[in-house]
Amino acid sequence: MHRKLGLSRRRFALLTAAAAAALRAQTGKRIPLGLQQTAVGRNIQQDLEGTLRAVAKMGYEIIEFSANTFMTWTPAKAKEVRSLLDELNLRCRSTHNEIVSFSGDGLSKAIELNQLLGSDTLVSVRGPGPMPGAGRQGGAAGRGASAGPAGPPAAGAPEGGAGVPAPRRPLAPPPALDAWKRFSEQLSQAADRMRAARMTLGFHNHDVEFRAVEGTRPIDILAANKDITSFHLNIGLCLQGGGDPVSFINQCPGRVQALLVQDYKGQARWKEIFGGAEGAGGLQFYLIQRTDGLFLVERQGDDLVDFARKDLEYFRQLHG
């Protein structure tokens, strides 16, 4: 959007940074910047220690691990990772969790591992699944989750030949409004145990929560749930779903723990977003994420660690 007004990307970043600097001078706050694991997921899986050392050296202060990684760890492994984080002056403030982390033994394990890592927030990253009996949707709008390719074909289904993709499953309608209400209640049921462990309940949006279902946006159901005290607002996906990040921040004062910094078609009003989040939103930290085809700096090549470096450099220009 700033390109249409005749501003270069660099000039726009400098103007936004100047405004953010003025805001910090008024509030006296400096908000730390972290990296969501998905930004360097392949590297984390291949070389955890080397990747953490690389991102810490760049200047990142926080790492948010995803459940597909940390929930596979033993307590001994979590302690080992915590020691490495302490050595590198990296903090794990929150983790990125599937619904299994919010009930029964899954919740017990998630709380234990989070506490060992130093995290005090369990963030739910996936809403309810598609309506029963429906095929799987290939995108976020029907899955209550991040956009991406459809899952693997069912057992016995033919794979595509060399260079030929396997057939995609049929699209599924989005979850019904009652499914979102039940999902919100399920999160609330976990909240008491989390509070007893001195942890907070978070939710990380995708685009689907900002699209109306039966006349109501799922994000409004979640915003009304006062047990969710730590929203992680993904700016790009909010915009992609037709939402307004500034409006959402004002809807949930003091409950926006983190901003996931991605843009969508240049629509992000960064000056207003940073000001609202660091003011009324109660922002505690920023996270850089590359997922769902969204980013800050357009990808060139396939070096995820280099992408993280470029995103950090651009964020510093953008924010100041």
CATH T-level fold name: TIM Barrel
Taking the alpha carbons of the first and last residues, their distance comes to: 20 Å
> Biggest β-sheet: count, sense, barrel?
8 strands, parallel, barrel
Average pLDDT value? 85
Helix proportion? 40-55%
- Coarse structural class: alpha/beta
Beta-strand residue percentage: 5-15%
- Rg over alpha carbons: 20 Å
Count of separate structural domains: 1
CATH class: Alpha Beta
Gross morphology: globular
Examine the secondary-structure arrangement and name the CATH architecture.
Answer: Alpha-Beta Barrel
Low-confidence stretches: 1-6, 12-25, 133-165
Order of helical and strand elements: HEHHEHHEHEHEHEHHEHEH
The number of E-state strands comes to 8
- Number of helical stretches of at least 4 residues: 12
**CATH homologous superfamily title:** Divalent-metal-dependent TIM barrel enzymes
- Biggest sheet strand line-up: 1-2-3-4-5-6-7-8
